[in-house]
Task: inverse folding
């Protein structure tokens, strides 16, 4: 679809050329031969268009292979580091005298620091570049995560979670913004699916690895197993953060591994008018806040984080309550929903890109996630049924994240994107603050997950409707 105008122009160009070439000879060669020669010229035009398409595919394949694998690994580590507390909880709950409610509060406090510093972090990225920003974020979060190994009271646990949120602030929207420097909107669905696949992979490998660390490392050098979990999984982001400074480029213009013609081709395909805007980052951010679509999108993302709360922070507990007691077994089974979710997400994103449609796809998979959340509350009597429900929730959650971020990047200008994307992410993380506290409190008060899961489902349904409504907004009102 994206190449139709170009091909049409080329076809008309070659038709005009054929008229110039064949016009004087039409009477001599006759209509049949003239049509045959014209067909040959059109075939040449088609071959030229196909060759350009092939060169463009090769260019984006080169870009993807250069930056996506590294970012993929970084985000796997980010998500493992963010949710490993759900495995540590199985043991440090007693050591720190935590209840379900206090654990939920600690999980939620992470997002206070995350929300407060996310917009400034993304505005700083626009100012100093992605390379320095990603290096700073990864090194800080790794160090704070390692410090989590030394908390001994609920108050210290709360403080460490807040500081971890401050350290990680801006990473996810920063990566989203970074991808817009390289890929046009028509490719972002597939690119985002590879990026969000990191969440699934982190669940697939993070669960077994966390379970293995906690099963094997307890008592080594005098540290408990949950302390080793934070120390070992916090060290890797520091190393990757240092590597990011040397591997990543701030944008195509700074990439020494691209030729001048390749840089120009990427710039033309992006065609972002915001690069010539004179507004400052803060002025553009204020402009973005005046767009109704920004607020609707922010609520949509707010709803997704509620599903993430159940999947990322309660999966080990749900599996354990279904009758699986071994920590390593819990870790292995925790990987299953993410594996199924990864396959489902890739299928949904492929279909969305094929049809060039986002909003209805988003609504459908969020509806699936809401139904799965309700079903989880009634499935704890069976470990198999619990895992099936968690898998459906994972399909909805992962697909929703991948599809969602293709929507605001379509209506925000280049200068509005840093602040606008960070604002959406910040509002979404308010859901990550509220949901675990509410879910943990309700679970402790009622001894059941039913009421908490029902609230999650309602929020998901409302968020799906909000994003679906965006398709009825004229772009001029964006």
Result:
């Amino acid at each position: 679809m994206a190449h139709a105008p170009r091909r049409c122009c080329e076809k008309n160009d070659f038709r005009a050329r054929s008229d110039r070439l064949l016009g004087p000879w039409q009477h001599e060669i006759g209509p049949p031969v003239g049509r045959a020669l014209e067909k040959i010229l059109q075939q040449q035009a088609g071959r030229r268009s196909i060759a350009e398409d092939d060169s463009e595919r090769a260019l984006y394949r080169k870009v993807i292979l250069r930056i996506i694998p590294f970012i993929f690994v970084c985000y796997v580590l980010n998500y493992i580091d963010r949710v490993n507390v759900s495995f540590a909880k199985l043991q440090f709950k007693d050591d720190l005298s935590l209840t379900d409610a206090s654990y939920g509060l600690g999980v939620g406090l992470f997002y206070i620091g995350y929300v407060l510093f996310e917009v400034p972090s993304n505005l700083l990225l626009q100012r100093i570049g992605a390379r320095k920003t990603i290096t700073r974020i990864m090194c800080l979060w790794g160090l704070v995560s390692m410090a989590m190994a030394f908390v001994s009271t609920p108050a210290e646990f709360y403080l460490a979670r807040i500081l971890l949120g401050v350290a990680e602030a801006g990473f996810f929207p920063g990566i989203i913004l970074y991808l817009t420097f390289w890929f046009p909107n028509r490719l972002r669905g597939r690119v985002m699916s590879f990026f969000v696949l990191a969440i699934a992979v982190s669940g697939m490998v993070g669960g077994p690895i966390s379970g293995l660390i906690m099963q094997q490392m307890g008592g080594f050098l005098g540290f408990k197993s949950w302390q080793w979990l934070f120390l070992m999984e916090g060290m890797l982001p520091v190393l990757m953060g240092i590597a990011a400074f040397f591997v990543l480029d701030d944008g195509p213009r700074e990439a020494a591994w691209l030729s001048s013609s390749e840089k120009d081709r990427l710039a033309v395909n992006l065609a972002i008018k915001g690069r010539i805007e004179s507004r400052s980052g803060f002025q553009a951010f204020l402009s973005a806040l005046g767009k109704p679509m920004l607020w609707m999108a922010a609520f949509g993302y707010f709803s997704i984080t509620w599903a993430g709360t159940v999947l990322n922070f309660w999966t080990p507990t749900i599996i354990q309550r279904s009758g699986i007691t071994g920590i390593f077994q819990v870790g292995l089974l925790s990987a299953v929903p993410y594996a199924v979710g990864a396959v489902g997400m890739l299928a949904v994103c492929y279909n969305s890109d094929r049809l060039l449609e986002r909003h209805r796809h988003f609504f459908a998979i969020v509806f699936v996630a809401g139904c799965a959340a309700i079903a989880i509350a009634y499935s704890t009597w069976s470990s198999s049924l619990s895992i099936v429900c968690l898998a459906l929730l994972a399909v909805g959650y992962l697909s929703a994240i991948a599809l969602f971020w293709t929507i605001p990047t379509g209506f925000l200008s280049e200068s509005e994107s840093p602040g606008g994307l960070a604002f959406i992410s910040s509002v979404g993380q308010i859901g990550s603050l509220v949901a675990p506290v509410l879910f943990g409190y309700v679970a402790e008060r009622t001894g059941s997950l039913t009421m908490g899961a029902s609230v999650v489902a309602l929020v998901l349904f409302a968020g799906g409707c909000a994003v679906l409504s965006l398709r009825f907004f004229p772009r001029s009102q964006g």
About this structure: The chain has two domains: 4-49, 67-253+260-265+282-477.
